[in-house]
Specification:
9 helices; Rossmann fold; 6-stranded mixed beta sheet; 4-stranded antiparallel beta sheet; 10 strands
């Protein structure tokens, strides 16, 4: 395997079925460090399922997943948990504890490495973790809102807090499932620009499920199109045509 991808994401032959319906039909996907890949396709095409298999929210039926150089095949228990920690997921529904501060929410990304006795309450978080979380908030442009309740932030700011939490986890692979669908156009552009920065400037491997081809064209390096559980399009973002988009969302096979 290309050594470049040993620190990114590589998926080979990924298959997943639900209730007898094959949602993923042998998907191959790679995302290199420093690259933002956008996944496009109609509802039910398998985009989100592929990302969920990577982080363990869905169990693949077949195939191999390598995250930051480690194959997940054959791992279980603590070994699997450690390997998957190199990948973090940001969702359309922003899962923050709204009554806690932005800083406390970001700290939650780093508690997996703490002894249980230090992870039960934010007041027990060590100083080093809080300093790291503050640096992650600064990276997403929200250090000045660190002590504000998460619920008082705008939707775009909350999504940036969720990205900071992923950074605090130490993830080298960042997955985002429709992260801007619920945001206004200005906030959506800000979040997508941040994800592109994290790829291009910080060297993360970033994969984003989108339903906005124009944002994909503007911010992604490469576009992957799925139809009925299969990859039918792989192209540099600048080369995505209106015909490509129409075919993907009609469900046509190219």
């Amino acid at each position: 395997m290309n050594t470049l991808l040993d620190t990114g994401l590589a998926v080979r032959g990924l298959r997943k079925s639900y209730g007898g319906r094959e949602v993923l039909k042998g998907v191959d996907l790679t995302v290199a460090p420093g690259e933002l890949v956008a996944l496009l396709g109609a509802n039910g095409s398998g985009k989100s399922t592929a990302l969920r298999c990577v982080v363990g929210l869905a169990e693949a039926d077949a195939g191999e997943i390598r995250v930051a150089g480690t194959s997940l095949r054959g791992l279980s228990g603590a070994e699997l948990t450690r390997a998957r920690r190199a990948a973090a997921m940001v969702f359309q529904q922003i899962h923050l504890v709204r009554r806690r501060s932005a800083l406390d929410n970001v700290c939650a990304g780093g508690i997996a490495g703490l002894p249980l006795s230090r992870s039960l309450s934010p007041v027990l978080f060590p100083r080093e973790l809080r300093e790291h979380a503050m640096a992650c908030l600064d990276r997403v442009g929200l250090a000045d809102r660190a002590h504000d309740r998460a619920g008082s932030l705008s939707g775009g700011q909350q999504q940036r807090v969720a990205v900071a939490r992923a950074l605090c986890q130490g993830a080298r692979v960042l997955l985002a499932d429709e992260p801007v669908s619920a945001l206004d156009p200005a906030a959506a552009t800000q979040v997508m620009a941040l994800l592109a920065e994290l790829a291009h400037e910080d060297g993360l491997a970033v994969a984003v499920v989108l339903h906005q081809p124009e944002l994909a064209r503007l911010h992604a390096d490469r576009l992957i199109g799925l139809i009925d559980g299969e990859i039918r399009l792989s192209t540099p973002a600048a080369l995505l045509s209106e015909e490509d988009i129409a075919a993907l969302y009609r469900g046509e096979r190219g």
